[in-house]
Design brief:
It contains 11 helices and 10 strands. With about 350 residues, it is of the alpha+beta class. The strands form 2 sheets. The chain has a 6-stranded mixed sheet.
Amino acid sequence: MSDQSPKSGNGLSYKDAGVDIEAGNELVDRIKPAIRSTARAGADSEIGGFGGLFDLRAAGFHDPVLVAANDGVGTKLKIAIDAGIHSTVGIDLVAMCVNDLIVQGAEPLFFLDYFATGALDVDKAADVVEGIAEGCRRAGCALIGGETAEMPGMYAKGDYDLAGFAVGAAERGTLLPRNDMAAGDVVIGLGSDGVHSNGFSLVRRIADSAGLRWDNRAPFEDATLGEALLAPTRIYVKSLLAALRAGMPIKGLAHITGGGLIENIPRVLPKPLAVEIDLSLIDVPPVFSWLAAAGGVSEPEMYRTFNCGVGMIVIAPREYADELIGFFAAQGESARVIGHLAERKDAAFTAFGSLNL
């Protein structure tokens, strides 16, 4: 009987098929210090096991309700890849998940990431994961695990994709939104740090039609276009947790992501109520003025697609507006009243005034 096995030294390996196990191990060693830096009560942030552990009792919870969220970064990743700037999209990944947890009154506890690519570039992947760790530190949550998937043939050379998963908790009975919202409650907008992580298919289309490269000087600030547009999504967790723990009378919160102001605020309102926003009260960052002008984007399309300078909405009784604005200012947030709740007659969202584009 003939021997049909490959001759010694001639057989294929996993590396020959495009998957480099040694590179994966090198990445794990590189990112361990960043992951350890996210340790918090309830988690030691050591990696290497088959699953991440979290101790709710050690974190101080007595009767918790768990809240989970997952998200990605969208086509903002394409700018990061083409511009060669990989250190901030990890912050975006965390922000898009943990900001969704805090709007329900939940403290983010731990985070897991998924990094997928065709061929693993250790330096690039380490930059991304170190950004994820920075996002976790800003949110006060632990990075307790993740997955790096090297999939030859699935992604073009140099491309990668990200997904994030966050879990938080709140004591039973403290979840938001509250059921006592009423007409006359004020809507306070917390300022954004730019485009955040939504609308980038339109952003990229506008930049392309304007004939701009990512290394060109941005028309709206002193940075390259790539650097300016990759400013990471603001994480509002610590300032909002501080407000909730201080007993501030917050009735509802809304994270302004895809769908902009027009879709995200009504998501937290009871059926009898609508929101009325005075667009002229919004402090619009220059990037949005440039996008509107360069792309010929209409005002309704702007506040439906982008945050336009408001990354988080706080709903509270009118008599506490000044106190809340002062509190958030002390936390480093830019806050101002931009509207109010009203009895719903037709639409759940009404805008008046004009954006200062």
